[in-house]
Specification:
Distance between the termini: 47 Å
Number of strands: 8
Largest sheet: 8 strands, mixed
Structural class: alpha/beta
Helix content: 40-55%
CATH class of the largest domain: Alpha Beta
CATH architecture of the largest domain: 3-Layer(aba) Sandwich
Oligomer: single chain
Order of helices and strands: EHEHHEEHEHEEHEHHHHH
CATH superfamily of the largest domain: NAD(P)-binding Rossmann-like Domain
Radius of gyration: 19 Å
Strand content: 5-15%
Length: 284
């Protein structure tokens, strides 16, 4: 099927980045959030960010204008009604995601595909809450979507071959991303590997093994990672890291996925990383 109109629900960093990727590919995008002003504000921030790229010679002024014109901030969820594909990028919690998909299911055309940007929640379970489970799939973009070259595509138990093929072709041919396909198992591929690494770094810090700086430096230089695990956790959001770790621990039932107490404490204290200015590091 041809996908030309996309709705992105959630105007945070991930949702705005996904909207940018789609608009750069020439698609019409409705960007929607629970509060209309958040979608408008995201559009303004994107305009400012793209202008900086123009000033640095990394983006043509005409291309910037085209991207911005193809992204329309929606005043309500109804702005998604004409989409061929709706991508959810809201909070990493099951109940609000399921509630959103039920609403979208009732307003989108029968041909439309529903996709979740979830990094841990069961695609099969969310799909079962809709009347189009065969047209439901996971599209896990990496952060930030315009820069990162990978999309994890997750097939639920009910996902049809036609749906998988349409999304894989969109991601590779239009978005110019590399696609890996995962079974619907908690954490999928990336977070199944990443979250235990971040969690172990939290345990190391909790036990006084080394400072945050030395833990990150050891991983960066010793394992040739571009970013240390504690810095990455701050970038992802400590609340998101904790939620995914809880899902892995609960669903897979192994103690190796048990979140470090220090991670829970930081989240309880509101030290969530870059978005609050305080996490394992300070961001003034």
């Amino acid at each position: 099927m041809a996908i030309e109109r996309i709705a992105v629900i959630g105007a945070g960093q991930m949702g705005t980045g996904i909207a940018q990727v789609a608009a750069q590919a020439g698609l019409a995008v409705a960007l929607v959030d629970v509060a209309p002003e958040l979608a408008e504000r995201a559009h303004q921030k994107l305009a400012a960010a793209l202008q900086k790229l123009v000033e640095k010679g990394k983006l043509a002024a005409g291309d910037r204008q085209g991207i911005l014109e193809r992204i329309r901030p929606g005043k309500s969820l109804e702005a998604a009604a004409g989409a061929d594909l709706a991508i959810e990028a809201i909070v990493e919690k099951e109940e609000p995601k399921v509630e959103l998909f039920r609403a979208l299911d009732g307003m989108l055309g029968p041909h439309a595909i529903l996709a979740s940007n979830t990094s841990s929640i069961s695609i099969t379970k969310m799909a079962a809450a809709t009347k189009r489970p065969e047209r439901f799939i996971g599209m896990h973009f990496m952060n930030p979507p315009p820069v990162m070259q990978l999309i994890e595509v997750i097939r639920g138990l009910q996902t049809s071959e036609e749906t998988w093929r349409a999304i894989a072709e969109l991601a590779t041919q239009r978005f110019k991303k590399t696609v890996v396909t995962s079974k619907d198992v908690p954490g999928f591929i990336v977070n199944r590997v990443l979250i235990p690494l971040i969690n172990e770094a939290c345990f190391a810090l909790q036990e006084g093994l080394a400072t945050p700086e030395d833990i990150d430096t050891a991983v960066k230089l010793g394992l040739n990672h571009p970013m240390g695990p504690l810095t990455l956790a701050d970038f992802v959001g400590l609340d998101t890291c904790l939620y995914i770790a809880d899902v892995l621990h609960r669903e897979l039932g192994e103690d190796k996925y048990r979140p470090a107490s220090l991670l829970r404490q930081y989240v309880a204290a509101g030290w969530l990383g870059r978005k609050t200015g305080r996490g394992f590091y300070r961001y003034d």
